[in-house]
Amino acid sequence: MKLATPLRSLRFALTALALPLLAGCGDDGDDKPDPIDNTKPLYAITTQIITGDEPQSYVILTDSVDHTETLSLENAIEVPGRALGVGVPKSGALFVAGSEDPTVTRFELSSDGRLVKGATISFEGRGVASIGEYQHQFQFISETKAYYFDSRTAQAIVWNPKDMSVTNAIPLPGITIEGAILTFSTLPIRRENQVIVPLGWRPATGVGITKKAGVVVIDTRNDTATVKLDDRCGYVRDGVAGPDGMVYLATEVYGAAVRRVAGGETPVPCLLRFDPTSLTFDATFHKDLSTFANGGTVGSLLPGPNGTAYLRVFDESRFAVSSGTHPRLVASAPAWSWWQLRFDNLTATPVSGLPASTGSTFLHDVPDRTLFTEFANGSTATSFRELTGNSGKVTATTPGLAFSFLQVR
Question: Fewer CB within 10 A of the end CB, N or C, for the chain?
Answer without folding.
Answer: C
